[in-house]
């Protein structure tokens, strides 16, 4: 193993050991100025992908992972911090999820948890790997370069924002 590969592997392990955090947006179907929802595909199944600047890692809904027969690796039970201060337990990680978003394909590990807001949440774990990114949250698109090509991902234009009360949020946090 070369020195660069070793350093990259160590950095990857450090990132994975960092406490994963997911935003309330990802759990409760809330769209905010820090998110863009796009259409993606995993194994030819259409999935809703939430690109979320407030989530640290990449997540896949546990039901989608099972439905698509993704290879699930058991982990010692860990907790995902919710940006509001709560936690969600998880004990499964999926390796090498191949997520197509337009012409762009992301191969990434994802933590498998129960969510209500999207099928997949892409967080800072992926965004950091892209280098310079241009977001336009008003028109719901993002641009970046990948392998020398310009990539544009267009968001899904949806309904107006949904506000939920604290009781609904507590119920969402209690579910596992």
Written account of the structure:
This protein has 176 residues and is of the alpha+beta class. The protein has a single domain, classed as Acid Proteases (Cathepsin D, subunit A, domain 1). Helices cover 22% and strands 43% of the residues. It contains five helices and eleven strands. It has helices at residues 3-17, 24-28, 62-67, 124-127, 166-174, and strands spanning 21-22, 35-42, 45-52, 59-61, 72-82, 87-101, 104-113, 120-122, 133-136, 141-146, 149-154. The chain has a six-stranded mixed β-barrel with strand order 2-3-8-4-7-6. A three-stranded antiparallel sheet has the order 9-10-11, with no helix packed on it. Strand 5 and strand 6 form a beta hairpin. The longest helix has 15 residues, at 3-17. Mean pLDDT is 79; it is low at 1-16.
SSE topology sketch:
Blueprint: H1 3-17, E1 21-22, H2 24-28, E2 35-42, E3 45-52, E4 59-61, H3 62-67, E5 72-82, E6 87-101, E7 104-113, E8 120-122, H4 124-127, E9 133-136, E10 141-146, E11 149-154, H5 166-174
Parallel strand pairs: 1-5, 3-8, 4-7
Antiparallel strand pairs: 2-3, 2-6, 4-8, 5-6, 6-7, 9-10, 10-11
């Amino acid at each position: 193993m070369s020195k660069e590969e070793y350093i990259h592997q160590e950095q990857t392990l450090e990132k994975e050991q960092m406490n994963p955090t997911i935003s309330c947006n990802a759990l409760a179907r809330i769209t905010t100025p820090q998110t863009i929802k796009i259409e993606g595909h995993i194994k030819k199944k259409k999935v809703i992908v939430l690109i979320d600047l407030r989530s640290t890692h990449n997540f896949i809904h546990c039901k989608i992972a099972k439905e698509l027969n993704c290879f699930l690796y058991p982990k010692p039970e860990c907790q995902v911090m919710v940006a509001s201060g709560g936690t969600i337990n998880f004990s499964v990680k999926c390796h090498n999820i191949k997520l197509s978003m337009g012409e762009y394909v992301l191969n990434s590990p994802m933590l498998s948890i129960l969510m209500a807001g999207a099928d997949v949440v892409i967080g800072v774990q992926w965004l950091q790997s892209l280098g310079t990114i241009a977001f336009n949250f008003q028109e719901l698109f993002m641009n970046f370069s990948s392998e020398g090509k310009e990539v544009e991902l267009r968001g899904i234009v949806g309904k107006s924002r949904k506000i939920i009360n604290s009781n609904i949020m507590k119920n969402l946090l209690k579910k596992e």
